[in-house]
Design goal:
Number of helices: 2
Keywords: Chloroplast, Plastid, Ribonucleoprotein, Ribosomal protein
Strand content: under 5%
Oligomer: single chain
Protein name: Ribosomal protein S19
Number of strands: 0
Largest sheet: none
Helix content: over 70%
Structural class: mainly alpha
Distance between the termini: 25 Å
Organism: Alstroemeria aurea
């Protein structure tokens, strides 16, 4: 999973934004 995130920074950013919304 970490490898795919490194290869796709755009996807990682999208996931991080999703997590932020869930935390809120």
């Amino acid at each position: 999973m970490t490898r795919s995130l490194k290869k796709n920074p755009f996807v990682a950013n999208h996931l991080s934004r999703k997590i932020e919304k869930l935390n809120m």
